[in-house]
Model the fold of this input.
Amino acid sequence: MDLRMTIRGQDDPGQQPRGDTSPDREQAAGGDVKRGTSSSSGGRQASLVEAATKGDPQARESLVREQLGWVQQAAGQRAGRGLSEGDLVQEGSLGLMKAIEEFPASGRTDFEAFAREQVAEHMEQAIAQEDSAQEESRRLVQAAEDYQLAEFSLRRELGREATPAEIAAKLEWPQERTDAIAGMVVEARRRHDEDLLNYLDPEDLDLDGLLSGAEDAADHQAGQKGTNGGGPSPSQGSTSTEK
Done:
């Protein structure tokens, strides 16, 4: 027997198995499967987008649900910048709905890329608006505090309540702004309403403390005037009686 022929007839342990089971062929097949799956997924999304933009509520709901994962991720990346993650998810969802409505007229072909832009824009706008609102609130609180300090200062200087024009002149504010802040402070004093005090941020502006301090000072001054205004002192009365 020719051993060389026998050896040639056996499978070489180092040789790749015959057929379609080689790693290269399996990888190629796997790549084709993945590409086929991706293509199928893309086709399904395109169908959903088309149906959703035509007003199909079920298609719109399905499309939003499929995109919600990256919307939540985008919200998490922006959390802590003035808005909670939940608020940002809501803003992102509004951006996603806007993307569905505007995609047909956008001239774009990639819905997800277009949607990501709209979602990011909505989130950033909401953050900017919150920053602006907080800054306006801080300015309002500071203005109310400045108004009250000017009011108390003029009361001490003049010995009477200052007129709105005098307060405006001391603060160097336009009369319109002075009147607006004055109305806000007066309303807060009158109502002492919790919601309004939150609006004024009582942690930064202690209206009750300022008011009670001013009233105590006024009572003290009145008491001193009454004591020095005339009438015998107790010691003088005693001396007169003895005489």
